Amino acid sequence: MKATARRADESFEHRVSVRGHRLTCDELAALGGSDTGPSPQELLAASLASCTAITMEMYAERKGWDIGRVEVDVDYEPAQRGSFSRFSIDVRLPGNLSEDQRLKLMQIGARCPIHRTLEGEVMFEESVSIK
Q1: Fewest 10 Å CB contacts: which of 78, 85, 114, 121?
Q2: Alpha-carbon distance 80 to 8, whole Å?
């Protein structure tokens, strides 16, 4: 998977390309940006929210469970000095599910690829090139 970010103007606005899809990423005006799109940290929270919902919906579909549309809110609090980054995940599921089904969906959601990446150790391989 590859994502490319290129500066769009004189603020912090960037055009991000992923598999032919394009989106805008920027910082809040209070941080020197133009607020033309979500910040990178907001995109991280969005990635976790959408990955959790999609993973639950895919699992339920395979099981034949009618869960409709899952709603997931993620609140992200970046690490401060001496503390961890904190993600609060609020999942809304339909009332027609049994307690066992809800529990299983929550377990499955916690194993989505983004959740596992954030939970595990991460390695970075960095390079620089001259353009």
Answers
A1: 121
A2: 30
